[in-house]
Amino acid sequence: MRNASFVAAILTLALSPLVGTAQTVPQDVTALQARAESGDAKAQVDLGIAYAEGDGIPADEALAVKWFRKAAENGDAAGEYALGEMYLFGRGVSADKAEAAKWIERSADHGDAHGQYNLAVMYAQGQGVSKDETAAEKWMRKAADQGLADGEFGLGSMYAHGSGVAKDEIEAAGWYRKAADQGDSAAMNNLAFLLATATDTKVRNPKEAVEVAQKAVAAEPENPTYLDTQATAYFVAGKLSEAVDSERQALKLKPESTAYKKAIEKYEAALASK
């Protein structure tokens, strides 16, 4: 899961196992195996997923790697991405970030949006490749331009923090909004925080910040970060009682947070002096 807090280290590897690499695996595994053995790259990837997830067949990550490799070596983008992911997490093969980066980059070159996003993250963090913010921005933008919510979120984060691009709150808000419109709760959270705290008056909008923050909290009501953002939005919008209540909920979920405790003190002081 991505770290949804509005901090510089916002880009994290957000790989759900084999997301976006194939459609639902057919129930007839025998027929699927026959197509895979005949050289059908899509069937090879689907069979690899079946083995990786134990879907209709006993789970066997080594066999999953075998079939992903066959598809990858034939230049199939989904196979390249899946093989890279197996190396990244050490599933069915020894973990090797450099090898993971090699295959993920091939998938990115072949247009796989998930590969482009994760390659961007690897460049941003220097995992398996040398840290390179320019390359990270290049690949993140390619993923975002394909409409991948993770890519839109990531590019928004880059603009918000000036990572690989010049800091631009208007661009950040625009990309966060695209991801939020796809139901990405982390993007909703970051958009809400930006709308509440932006220095650019064209972006700052406390009323909308509250509305967006409420949507994020509705999506993940047990996420203390989202409740903290909602409290910030309420405070900036002048809803002091709501800010205190929201921050208290955040603290209840994360009682060790000194930041939340200080925020409550700030909001309560403002409420008392009103």
Explain what you see.
This protein is 66% helix and 0% strand. The longest helix is centred in the C-terminal third of the chain and has 15 residues. The chain is built from 14 helices and no strands. It folds into two domains: 161 residues, Serine Threonine Protein Phosphatase 5, Tetratricopeptide repeat (Alpha Horseshoe), CATH 1.25.40; 107 residues, Serine Threonine Protein Phosphatase 5, Tetratricopeptide repeat (Alpha Horseshoe), CATH 1.25.40.10.
Features:
274 residues; mainly alpha; 14 helices; 66% helix; elongated
Report the top-level CATH class of the largest domain: Mainly Alpha
Distance between the termini: 40 Å
**Could you give a short account of the major beta sheet?**
none
Q: Supply the number of helical segments.
A: 14
The low-confidence parts are 1-17, 19-23
Structural class: mainly alpha
How many structural units, i.e. domains? 2
**Helix fraction bin:** 55-70%
| Mean pLDDT across residues | 91
What does the overall shape look like? elongated
